[in-house]
Specification:
Helix content is 41%, strand content 14%. By secondary structure, the chain is of the alpha/beta class. Helix 4 packs parallel to helix 5 and helix 12 runs parallel beside helix 14. The chain is globular and about 55 Å long. The N and C termini lie far apart (52 Å). The relative contact order is 0.17.
Length: 383
Amino acid sequence: MQLISKLPNVGTTIFTRMSQLAAEVGALNLSQGFPDFPSPPALLEAAARHLHAGNNQYAPMTGLPRLREQVALKVAALYGRDVNADSEVTIVPGATEAIFCAVQALLRPGDEAIVLDPCYDSYEPAVELAGGRCVHVPLELPDFRVDWQRLADAITPRTRLIFINSPHNPSGALLSHADLDQLAALIREREIWLISDEVYEHLVFDGMQHASVLAHEELYQRALVVSSFGKTYHVTGWKTGYVVAPPALSAELRKVHQFVTFVAVTPLQHALADFMAEHPEHIAELPAFYQAKRDLFCDQLAASRFTFSRTPGTYFQLADYSQIRPDLDDVAMAEWLTREQGVAAIPVSVFYQQAPEGMRLVRFCFAKREETLRAAALKLATL
């Protein structure tokens, strides 16, 4: 008997492959999006304290009440929305699980979901496993803006879901409040749900403000907003995130979540609740913290033949290598950089269903120590 794969086009992700290659050849790893600097000591101390205090059994399926309350307080402070911590906030083991559960809750076989390319690689497999089909709408280059006419043209009677992601991975592009208004007008008379992937919500630079769906009254009524403690608190390996959604949508999300992972890790939830309550300044300091890293890396990279515009958000910087190795596609370029130059990067084409002809972009992660960024930029500046 032969097993027929439900995901025949899915293999090992490029992020895993590039990190493995970086480890094999001893390259500086600016590929996968995780910090190489320590997590906040007070957060780690809180985790150890709760581990030893015996907080190691199942938390409530929806998340620790006091952590959900901290999320609700943050949403009110930043976005002016009063959400009910019991019925609108769900703690989950990472944003990827949240997105998967949301898709399974929303889609039925034959439904269509619109994704804006380039996009995070978990969206399409989640849709396919729900029996749906992804419709890919490319963002406009070079600044990765939404082509609203193209998006409107992609909507059919089968469209049930649109994914948005701001700040955007891999480009760092930001949606504005005007963009959200335009999206609201586009889907106002249609039965279309929204998944808003906002895991980099606090990584916005140059004095800009994050335009969250949580602050948009009309869109919030049909949205599940996904965020990440891992990205915010430098603990990506904790795989802990949350979803904020209206009560009816939260209820459907939870029906799926309880049979996928049931609950996020208990002592980590306790630690995050403590840290959020005791260190509210952490979130306020994040933009300047990461902007300094972006500027350090970009200042050093300016001496190279890479061309780029400084990213407005996330901890990723795109760079065009057309003046260095135009003969290589971006997958080959990422491998060449890793093997021959000692700096690992991610090719941008892997975020597309069909990348634009001749694209020569790679993505670097600058969530690294200063010495890592300086060493990497020094290698890249010789190209």
